[in-house]
Amino acid sequence: MTSIPEYVIETYGLTKVYRSGGGAVVAVDKLDFTVEKSSIFGLLGPNGAGKTTLLMMLTGLTLPTNGSGRVLGYDIVRESREIRRRVGFLPEGFGFYEHLTAEQNLEYIAALNDIPKPERRKRIEDILSLVGLYEVKNRRVSSFSRGMKQRLGIAQALIKDPELLLLDEPTAGLDPEGSRAFKDLVLKLNSEGRTIVLSTHLLFEVGPLCSSIAIMNRGRIVVQGRVKDLISKLMSEVGYKIYVEVRGDLGKLASALTGMEGVRGVRIGVDSLYVDSTRDIRVDIVKIASDMKVEISSIRVEEPSLEDLFIRYYRGEASNA
């Protein structure tokens, strides 16, 4: 029996309209949106797609014009204070007091969040260790690199020990070393059971971390779902690319496969075949090769990448707009 997913975020028709100069700008447009518990969720799309506005509504920092939503079971309008107590949020461009140390900044944020003083010291030390900043806890933030400041930003988001983390453009401006450290940290936090939402236009930077994604454009969700399900859907739509390594008569096997139902093309490489098919025919290929006494050393389906998903759904949607 299939279990019903548990959602930490749910929105229904969520809409935000900004009015300026007698006109109206629809930042988020009738959004139906869900995030499963304990997932790493990628909210992907270009700058101006409405991602930041969505995060601000989810945390009660701006009110929706229409629609509704729940975060950790709490209503985003009536119970937004409870949401902010339980959710760690790293907004884009989060700033610190540069003249204070990392530890002093977190002490201040802990006090703002009403964390009892006896608990603060250990919690701050544990979090600084987790994000790799314990050894520099007494250095002024003004001396920190962009990557170190970003890790400190995640530390402040963790100060409440949240079940859910919302990180807005978390890798923007990071060098390769900082980006790698960030990815390792996200995976560690997720392994502890935390749900993490990564909102970004940098598809290739955080995309591989995500178990589920939503692609957003012009305030709307173009497509959303588990990555593996979206890849399966895309393969059923555009076909299967099957790579076959062969020992034996390539031409003979290629000729036999060319006549199969669903095969759109067969290309011969060096000791290999590339089969373009409307369906997964790996079992059929193995049987035909066996009957022909042709040895297959390996066979696999080349799955589409996140870039392929993005091109198919986002760019396809944009070109039809």
Please summarize the sheet with the most strands. Answer: 6 strands, mixed
Parts with pLDDT < 50 across at least 5 consecutive residues: none
Give the N-to-C terminal Cα separation.
Answer: 40 Å
* Integer average pLDDT: 88
The CATH first-level class of the largest domain comes to Alpha Beta
Q: How many beta-strand segments?
A: 14
CATH superfamily placement of the largest domain: P-loop containing nucleotide triphosphate hydrolases
Write a structural description.
- This protein is of the alpha/beta class.
- It folds into 2 domains: about 5-230, 3-Layer(aba) Sandwich (Rossmann fold), CATH 3.40.50; about 240-300, Alpha-Beta Plaits (2-Layer Sandwich).
- The chain contains 11 helices and 14 strands.
- The strands form 3 sheets. The protein has a 6-stranded mixed sheet with strand order 6-7-8-3-9-10, with helices on both faces. A 4-stranded antiparallel sheet has the order 2-1-4-5, with helices on one face. A 4-stranded antiparallel sheet has the order 12-13-11-14.
- A hairpin with a 3-residue loop joins strand 12 and strand 13.
- The radius of gyration is 24 Å and the shape is elongated.
- The protein starts with 6 loop residues before the first strand and ends with a helix.
- The model has no long low-confidence stretch (mean pLDDT about 90).
